[in-house]
Design goal:
Number of strands: 5
Strand order of the largest sheet: 4-1-3-2-5
Number of helices: 5
Structural class: alpha+beta
Shape: globular
Strand content: 25-35%
Largest sheet: 5 strands, mixed
Helix content: 40-55%
Length: about 130
Amino acid sequence: MIQLTYASRPFGFDTAMLAGILLDARRCNTRDGITGLLICRADLYLQLLEGPEAAVDAAYRRIAADDRHMDLSLLTRRSVTHRLFPRWAMRDDPARSWLWTKAEVDDGALTRASEDDVLAVFERIAGEE
């Protein structure tokens, strides 16, 4: 099993587009045995996907080809033995006040963040369950 995280910028973000992304993700992820979390706001998607390697890689390729995402950047990819979000085909979460601000993201915070920094975001949210 693998876990990967990526960041992208939404193209034309609104609630209808987000609802479409979540509907597609939940349908495909349930079918493919993938779980995860999508943090979303007008300037940022930050997502963690976890599950069978081939399925997660295929999902990431679909996301890369999806024109609702711009400036896609793979942040982490690692083997794991357990899931952070085992009950969620795709949990969605608004960006938290403690997450990087828009100005910090615009200034390159995600490109400077270590793998541990990125994973800590998802681990913190998983710990709230």
